[in-house]
Every structure is written in C-alpha cells, then in structure tokens.
Amino acid sequence: MEATKVLTKALMRAEDLFKLPDGGRHYELVRGELIEMSPPGGQHGRIALRVGSRLLAHVESRQLGQVIVESGFRLESNPDTVRGPDVSFMAASRIPAGGIPTGFISGAPDLAVEIVSPGDTVDEIQAKVDDYLSHGTQQVWVIHPATQSVTVYDADGTTQRLRKDDLLDGGEVVPGFSARVGELF
After folding, report:
1. Strands 139-144 and 111-115
2. Which of 44, 105, 163, 171 lies at a 20 to 30 A Cα distance from 20?
3. What tens digit of pLDDT does each residue of 18-34 get?
4. Do 49 and 183 meet the contact criterion of CB atoms below 8 Å apart?
5. What burial letters (b/e) apply to 168-185, b meaning 16+ CB within 10 Å?
6. Are 89 and 120 in contact (CB under 8 A)?
7. Would you call 86 helix, strand, or coil by DSSP?
8. Domain boundary assignment for the chain
9. Residue 33: strand pairing partners
10. Contact 159/129 with Cβ under 8 angstroms?
C-alpha cells in the first residue's frame, strides 16, 4: 500500500491506533507518527490473495503456523511502530498460547510480504524491509507487479531478485514452500 501522508505531529501509541475508526482507511504507525496508506487497488488485492492462499494451503497442510493478511505487528514501543504487511507468516512455535490476538501482534512476523503499489517509493519500501528485518523477521518478499518479479531479503543480509520463471522458495522460514514467481501474478 502506498503511504500518503503523516497525519500527526504528536506521538501516537499502538493502543490509540487500534482504536481509530476504520472508515476504509489503512494506517501504519512509524516511531509514533501516524501514516495514512492509500487503499490497495484491484491488482494488489488479487496478488495478495494468490500469495496468501498458496502460503495458507502449504502451511496448514504441514501445521507450520499461521498465515495472516493485512494485520498489524507491533515492532517497537516508546515510540511505537506498527507495520501491516500485506501477507505474513508466523511459525507455530511463536504463536502465543491464546492464539493470534484480536489486537496488534507483538513482535515481527517470520515472513513479511509487501506488494509494491504504483505510488510507493523505493525509500518507503526499503524502510519497511529494514523495520521488519531489524525487529526479527527472517525473510521479506517484496513483490513488484510492474516487472512481475520478487525481491527476497533474508535476515543474513542476502538479497536476490527473482523473475517470472524463477522459483520462490520459503527456505528455512516456510519449509517446503515454493512457487513459480509468474504464478503469483
């Protein structure tokens, strides 16, 4: 989703963000600043569904954990940062005893998937990738609809760009998962 503008000058807390009325708007909280995100377009939604459904089928059949879409992860506190990847995965060993909470999930997902929207800047996407990786995410997939490619960022600092005919592999993060990149579009 494309970031549109910073809405507050005073620092906001994750609890305040969670209580905001939805009204068709999407928000993230970055070091206490409320960021309004433009709603995703149709292509974005279709890709999120294709990625999420493929991950879900694989993860559920092997009881690996949970696949979550459009949900906030509280990455840091004081000031608070809440990021909402388009699709995410949490390993079963990291799911809280009571299950996935109603509110924001504390900590980072094991896998975060971001789908680039037409108005997203390179800096905005890189800031999200950096936030995820610096807070414990093991792998980030950045999906580029315009080029039908995926950039994979690993926690060890390696990055690879996959094209339409390449195989996207979940590695140790989502064991056994793979999909041809072109199938995601």
Report:
1. parallel
2. 44
3. 777 765 567 777 888 88
4. no
5. bbbeebbeebebebeebb
6. no
7. coil
8. 41-184
9. 30
10. no
* CA distance linking residue 129 with residue 140, whole number of Å: 7
- Return the minimum-mean-pLDDT range out of 88-92, 121-125, 180-184: 121-125
Phi, psi torsion values for 80, nearest 5 degrees: -80, 145
What is the reported pLDDT for 40? Answer: 82
Sorted by sequence, the CB contacts under 8 Å of residue 95 that are 6+ apart come out as 65, 66
**Tally: H helices and E strands in the chain:** 3, 14
Residue 50 has pLDDT above 60, yes or no: yes
Q: For residues 118 and 115, what is the distance between their CA atoms, to the nearest angstrom? A: 10
Q: Which CATH class name applies to 41-184? A: alpha beta
Amino acid in the structure at residue 144 = H
